[in-house]
Amino acid sequence: MTQPIATHALIGRHDPALNSRVYCSPEQQALRFGLALLLAIYAYSVAASLPAPQGAFIVVPSAYALLHAIFGLIEERRGSSPALSACMSTTDVLLLMPALWFDPLPSTPTLLLVGLFFGLASLRHRRDTLLRLTLLMVLLATATLLLRSYFMPLMSYLPLLASASIASILIGLILVFRQHTVALGELADLAPHNDPDTGLATRTSLYAVARLLWPLAHRQNMPVSLLYAVIDPTSAASTPDQRKQATQTLARAMADVAQTQLRGSDILVRYDALHFVFVLLDCPHAQADAVALRLQRAFDEAIATQMTAAQLHISATWLPTLPLALDPMLNAMQEALERARLRGQAQQGAAYTDPDTLR
């Protein structure tokens, strides 16, 4: 019986270069723009209760909306990143403190911003980052309100507690929906699907194949070879947009070569941005080296007319006699590929690794 197909830490469970983990980016920006408009209207409505100059309380929401418009343009052009998400959440937190401090109403309705910003952060950050951000918002809101009560003794606590209760209920509701969204995302991640850039299968498809095909191959003594192909660009791109474009070009070139050179029964997987795994069914490992050499030559010919130069390195292994999980095999192929690079043999067919030695 095969071992469970564990998730290898070499690259991670998800494909970060293929699947964005930020949800609903345009909708997030729309909510922030709507918030800025509502804050400006609120400041205009209670302008008589605000300290002079009252115009500053309209400028602040406008500047907030402008900053997020810039962040949105950057995200649209370069994609999501942890640093950009951190900048967006920091801007949200910076708006929270003056909104609470200058809120003239006893119920402090701007306290509901804590729930809104928590919801926006839950669409953008992972659990550990979200927890830290939530603690920061709660601490800053509490400190702001305590200082405000010290300088403004007439502040009414009962309406404030009502607003805090509503904000807490809102956060709880967001947590329920977030848990539901995470569960649906995990189901979607585990479902086999194709990479939109190349049309090849993705990592989840590879693990599904291993779970279903390995037992059958063992039972029928079917020889199965695996090729682990990595593209190393040799021409440096100067901007992130150029690097992204070069990665897509090389990935499509590799996909075209694999679909042309390999059989229809073989399983072609884009494992990461420039990492590929090819499962060669009914292929003895003695024949895999010729296949790897053919792929390398065809790839060199395919990119000869393009502006992006690269080298294709391939390592190989085979399905062992006794059951073995997929992750140790992939790890061993990665190590074999690195050894071949050090010896300068990465362009001479496949660098082999014996899976039976991994036990």
Q: What number is the mean pLDDT?
A: 82
Q: In what order do the strands lie side by side in the largest sheet? A: 2-3-1-4-5
Unreliable residue stretches: 1-14
- Helicity, as a percent range: 55-70%
Return the domain count: 2
The helix-and-strand class reads alpha+beta
Main pleated sheet: 5 strands, mixed
Order of helices and strands: HHHHHHHEHEEHEHE
- What percent of residues are in strands? 5-15%
**N/C terminus separation:** 15 Å
Rg measurement, Å: 27 Å
Name the overall outline.
Answer: elongated
Number of strands: 5
Q: Tally the helices: what do you get?
A: 10
Protein name: GGDEF domain-containing protein
InterPro entries: GGDEF_dom (IPR000160), Nucleotide_cyclase (IPR029787), Rev_trsase/Diguanyl_cyclase (IPR043128)
Organism: Paraperlucidibaca baekdonensis
Keywords: Membrane, Transmembrane, Transmembrane helix
